[in-house]
């Protein structure tokens, strides 16, 4: 018998935190079900502890909820409990309703054969407007937790089960890691940065050392003649008067 | 004497040429840093929000260092041609100060580029994109900057998140607090848009059908301009400093050979 499966992995939104995408059950229910309504049953596989759903829908940033035991649904599932009854109301799922029925359609909704290339999927959890509205017990609302969940398709003719598929494998949804767990410590220093810093530091140190050497040792005036050069200066010639001793008696007179 | 005169003239010529190159590189550095500071890719709000925008500080320093290099190179040319000891000593000391500033700019740009990892941007995006309750004015300003920048980034580059749309699924976020996972598995800006700016198929986008949503991450669009910015400032500055090192050594040697 047919087992409901998740859609192809090429879909990016195949499982999110509160929705998942199933392949439509094309060519599964035959013509004998043309007058039946085909429902999707979403159930929890076995009893476990979960959290109570806060009103209005689950939110990962909402107040902490209290744990409640979840009744097992799959092992003793009763196909005759109709959709919309308190045991099958989406808004009570999973605390007091171990399963719910949604996404009802007739066989016309799943035409056979499937046109090749078409994407034929069902998005479970897509309706947010009716998630808190108890007057819509078959709402296709966002799932309250990461699961796991098991689904099957059930054909009902006036609340009488006339056909069903097998239970799917457990479907687990995404859980989000807390934001604070992202580590932003750097990957360390890159090689380029280390090379740049060290080379520039060495060059700067050499320049400073040269400057110090220049000022303390290179500024002295003990140049060896031919290794220096002089600025071109106008040549000054001094006239020496070598006969000054003969002028002095003339001044005394 | 003619031979050493010829040697000195060659040294003079080399120093003048070296200073001309420094002057031109200074202008180029100023122009390059003005280009980076003008933030053509619009990513400054992301850096501002990380409170680690030192690669911009490095570019600002680069603008002023470029001008200083140009002015000092003119001074150097005059000093070499006139063989004036005072002028050249002033030139050497001011050049060393400029060298120190440019060194700081290069090292800052290179070091801070290493901080800008994908995880840093992802954490910032998850914390601030579409955050609804802000603590104070500064927080509000940074949150709005980050949100606007990411919206622009995702639309312009047709990308989503830092590594991909799965960023929004794998981690909790401020976005998730106000936008339910069922209606917004990822922001609507990740959807492929038509000419009027609305998604061509919102259901297809929410399902994650290839072709109706952007499945690639934006990290390349962020790291590309930032790498250009940081490496442009750091390595061009490094090249200028290596050349300046040689010119300064030559100038010091020339200075020591001038007679009083």
Overall outline of chain A: rod-shaped
For the largest beta-sheet of chain A, the strand count, sense and barrel status come to: 4 strands, antiparallel
Tell me the domain tally of chain A. Answer: 2
* Gap between N and C termini of chain A: 152 Å
* Multimeric status of the protein: heterodimer
Number of helices of chain B: 10
The N- and C-terminal alpha carbons of chain B lie at a distance of 18 Å
Beta strand % of chain B: under 5%
Give Rg of chain A in angstroms.
Answer: 46 Å
Round the mean pLDDT of chain A to the nearest integer and report it.
79
Describe the structure.
The complex is a heterodimer of chains A (253) and B (260). With 253 residues, chain A is of the alpha+beta class. Chain A has 2 domains: 20-178, no CATH class; 185-227. Chain A is 15% helix and 17% strand. Chain A has 2 helices and 8 strands; from the N terminus they run ββββββββαα. Chain A has helices at 191-218, 244-252; strands spanning 20-23, 37-43, 48-51, 67-70, 99-105, 121-124, 150-157, 160-164. A 4-stranded antiparallel β-sheet of chain A has the order 5-2-7-8, with no helix packed on it. A two-stranded antiparallel sheet of chain A has the order 1-6. In chain A, strands 3-4 form a two-stranded antiparallel sheet. The longest helix of chain A is centred in the C-terminal third of the chain and has 28 residues, at 191-218. Chain A is rod-shaped. The relative contact order of chain A is 0.18. Chain B is elongated and about 85 Å long. Chain B has helices at 2-37, 44-50, 54-82, 85-113, 118-128, 137-157, 166-170, 174-178, 202-207, 219-257. Chain B has 260 residues and is mostly helical. In chain B, helix 2 packs across helix 6 and helix 3 (54-82) packs antiparallel against helix 4. Chain B has 10 helices and no strands. The mean pLDDT of chain B is 91. Chain B folds into 2 domains: 1-116 and 226-257; 118-217, Cd81 Antigen, Extracellular Domain, Chain: A (Orthogonal Bundle), CATH 1.10.1450. Chain B is 72% helix and 0% strand. The two termini of chain B are 18 Å apart. The relative contact order of chain B is 0.16. The chains are: A alpha+beta (253), B mainly alpha (260). At the A-B interface, helix 1 of A face helix 1, helix 4, helix 5, helix 7 and helix 9 of B. Chain A: The chain crosses the membrane at residues 193-217. Chain A: Keywords: Membrane, Transmembrane, Transmembrane helix. Chain A: This is UPK3L protein. Chain A: It comes from Syrrhaptes paradoxus. Chain B: The chain crosses the membrane at residues 12-37, 57-81, 88-110, 233-255.
């Amino acid at each position: 018998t047919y087992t409901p499966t998740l859609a192809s992995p090429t879909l990016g939104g195949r499982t999110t935190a509160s929705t998942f995408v199933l392949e439509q059950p094309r060519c599964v229910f035959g013509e004998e079900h043309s007058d039946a309504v085909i429902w999707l049953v979403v159930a929890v596989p076995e009893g476990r502890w979960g959290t109570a759903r806060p009103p209005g829908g689950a939110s990962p940033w909402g107040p902490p909820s209290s744990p409640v035991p979840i009744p097992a649904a799959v092992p003793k599932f009763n196909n005759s409990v109709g959709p919309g009854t308190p045991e099958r109301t989406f808004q009570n799922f999973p605390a007091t309703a171990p399963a719910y029925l949604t996404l009802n359609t007739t066989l016309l909704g799943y035409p056979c054969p499937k046109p090749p290339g078409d994407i034929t999927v069902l998005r479970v959890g897509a309706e947010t407007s009716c998630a808190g509205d108890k007057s819509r017990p078959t709402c296709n609302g966002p799932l309250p937790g990461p699961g796991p969940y098991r689904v099957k398709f059930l054909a009902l003719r006036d609340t009488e089960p006339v056909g069903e598929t097998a239970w799917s494998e457990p479907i687990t949804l995404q859980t989000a890691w807390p934001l604070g767990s992202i580590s932003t410590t750097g990957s360390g220093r890159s090689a380029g940065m280390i090379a740049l810093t060290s080379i520039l530091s060495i060059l700067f140190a050499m320049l400073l050392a040269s400057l110090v050497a220049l000022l303390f040792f290179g500024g002295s005036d003990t140049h060896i003649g031919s290794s220096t050069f002089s600025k071109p200066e106008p040549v000054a010639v001094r006239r020496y008067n070598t006969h000054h001793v003969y002028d002095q008696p003339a001044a005394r007179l | 004497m003619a031979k050493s005169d010829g040697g000195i003239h060659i040294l003079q010529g080399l120093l003048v040429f070296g200073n001309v190159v420094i002057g031109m590189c200074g202008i180029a550095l100023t122009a390059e840093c003005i280009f980076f500071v003008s933030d053509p890719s619009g990513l400054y709000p992301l850096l501002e929000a990380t409170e680690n925008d030192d690669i911009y500080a490095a570019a600002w320093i680069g603008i002023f260092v470029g001008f200083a290099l140009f002015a000092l190179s003119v001074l150097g040319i005059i000093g070499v041609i006139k063989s004036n000891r005072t002028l050249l000593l002033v030139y050497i000391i001011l050049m060393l100060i400029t060298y120190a500033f440019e060194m700081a700019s290069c090292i800052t740009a290179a070091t801070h580029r290493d901080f800008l990892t994908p995880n840093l941007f992802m954490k910032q995006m998850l914390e601030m994109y579409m955050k609804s309750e802000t603590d104070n004015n500064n927080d509000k300003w940074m949150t709005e900057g980050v949100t606007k920048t990411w919206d622009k980034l995702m639309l312009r580059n047709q990308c989503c998140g830092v590594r991909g749309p799965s960023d929004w699924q794998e981690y909790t976020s401020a976005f998730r607090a106000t936008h339910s996972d069922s209606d917004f598995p990822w922001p609507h800006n990740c959807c492929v848009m038509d000419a009027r700016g609305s998604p061509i198929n919102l259901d297809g986008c929410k399902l994650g059908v290839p072709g109706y949503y952007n499945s690639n991450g934006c990290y390349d669009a962020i790291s590309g301009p930032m790498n250009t910015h940081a490496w442009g400032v750091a390595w061009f500055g490094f090249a200028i400093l290596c050349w300046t090192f040689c010119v300064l050594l030559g100038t010091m040697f020339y200075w020591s050979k001038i007679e009083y």
